Amino acid sequence: MKQTDIQIIDVTCSTQSFQYRSPMKFGGRVVRDVVVFDVAVKVKTRNDKIAEGFGSMTMGNIWAWPAGKTEPPDSLETMIRFGKKIVQSVAGYHEWGHPLELTYDFSKQYSPLAETVIKSVNAEPIPKLAQLVAASPFEAAVFDAYGRVHGENVYNLLSKEFCNRDLGYYLGNEFQDEYLDQYTLRQPKDRMPLYHLVGALDPLTDAEVKEPLNDGLPETFAQWIPFNGLTHIKIKLNGDQLDWDVNRVVTINRIAEEEQAKRGCTDWVYSADFNERCPNVEYVLGFLQQIKEKSPRAIQRLQYLEQPTNRDLKAFPENKMQQAAMIKPVVIDESLVDLESLHDSRKMGYSGVALKACKGQSEALLMAAAAQKYKMFLCVQDLTCVGASFLHSATISARISTVTAIEGNGRQYCPKANAGWDKKYPSMFVIKDGTLGTFVLNESGLGFSK
Which of 197, 265, 358, 445 keeps 20 to 30 A from 365, CA to CA? Predict the structure, then answer.
């Protein structure tokens, strides 16, 4: 019990809908719009000081709930219902504590709440990943409110002085007497490279543009390179068409070399994201071998691989990644929903972790601490976040020392949703030299304000 503890006294929520500028394909699925779920949380301290925090997240149901009998419109509606159910239930939650403790403890109610939601709509069970996504704006708002009520950036309130429990409570005995301040930075990094996404439908050159948008933004990968000064490029692959995947990388590398030469750039990197579509590790090994043979420079520039095979690790124990991880870091993403899944992924040979704000602030910070303890490769991935949700994702990247870049896809696919935010934080939305000015993310709360 600490005097800095807070209690939640009010929660409200709302949604916004945005059409994509252009469709994005990943994992065999196409996305054309997004619903943003916003949550405001009011808290008080033991001496009755009151402040309000804000959280926001894109409801990426196609990514978080891709399989099963539920159609995308229904899965989206169910996730929003679940998010609203959390907001309603928090009204009866009167515990005191640090936001890490409050959100961690309340998350135990997610599954029972999800069951009540699916009974009301006659849906299949809500996947745990979808639950985390729908709950994440609530968690962000609690952390934001805690920082605001104390007039501090919340990343400076993660030590023993503020937390009632050490990390051993959440992560096991090897973390006893440790706290999150040991795994996070007191100041955000000054600048960080932007990771630009090349979706499977994205035209690479002018010849591939079938219906020009003529909206003043780049319409091809080749145009984006000089427009943003790109040095970090993430490539979405199919995972079930080896020739296509290999040729896609080789072609992207050829175009990048041509465009980078024009601007005198000699140093850039790629990541490859299969979105769990590869049938086995042999596919991944064949992909790496063919890239090496066809484009040695491309394989040198390949920084890491993201979630090659099915997210259900227990159902596919044969999908071990040790051989691939000896060549390039192999990062767990869709599979990572709790500490158990992290341990399972390590046993299966995964050597890296993709953190996501959409899985919740507590989950991201705890997995960041565990990954650093285990000396795993770390990155922070996007859910085509826009506005506040993108800044939330960026604050995580900027406060974890071993994360080297920030993925940001909203400016490509849904720039309208950044309106207003781009004027308030131009260094985070107006990109000229391939980097984001994360130095601005040092305000109270999560580091930024509405």
Answer: 197
CB 37 within 8 A of CB 59: yes
**pTM beyond 0.85, yes or no:** yes
| Spatial separation of the C-alpha atoms in residues 344 and 319, rounded to whole Å | 12
Structure tokens at 130: 């979808």
- Which token pair is 416? 């309208």
- Helices and strands, counts by H and E, the chain: 17, 13
pLDDT on residue 53: 98
Alpha-carbon separation of residue 117 from 77, 120, 128, 196, 393 (angstroms): 11, 5, 14, 36, 28
Q: How far apart are CA 245 and CA 250, in angstroms?
A: 9
How is the chain split into domains, by residue range? 6-153, 192-440
Phi–psi pair at 197, nearest 5 degrees: -95, 135
Residues in the chain: 450
Phi, psi of 18 (to 5 degrees): -140, 140
Q: How far, in Å, CA of 296 to CA of 110, rounded? A: 47
**CATH number corresponding to 192-440:** 3.20.20.120
Query: How far is the C-alpha of 39 from the C-alpha of 135, rounded, in Å?
Result: 10
**Residue partners of 90: CB distance under 8 A and separation at least 6:** 8, 11, 41, 106, 138
Exposed e or buried b per residue across 306-327, where buried means at least 16 C-beta atoms within 10 angstroms of its C-beta: bbbbbbebeeeeebbbeebbee
DSSP reduced 3-state for 300: helix
Q: Given this model, what pLDDT does residue 26 score?
A: 82
CA 147/CA 140 separation, integer angstroms:
11
Report the distance separating Cα 385 and Cα 57, nearest Å.
Answer: 7
Return the CATH class of domain 6-153: alpha beta
Residue type, 86: I
Instruction: Say how many C-beta atoms besides its own lie within 10 A of residue 218's C-beta.
Output: 16
Asked whether 382 and 390 are in contact (CB, 8 A), the reply is yes
Joined together, the tokens standing for residue 188 give 């955000």
Residues facing 193 on adjacent strands:
435
- Other CB atoms within a 10 A radius of the CB of residue 12 amount to 12
- Mark the ranges of the chain whose per-residue pLDDT is less than 70: none
Structure tokens at 275: 């979105």
The number of beta carbons lying within 10 Å of the beta carbon of residue 19 is: 11
Distance CA 352, CA 346 (A): 9
Question: Quick check: 255 and 226 in contact, CB under 8 A?
Answer: no
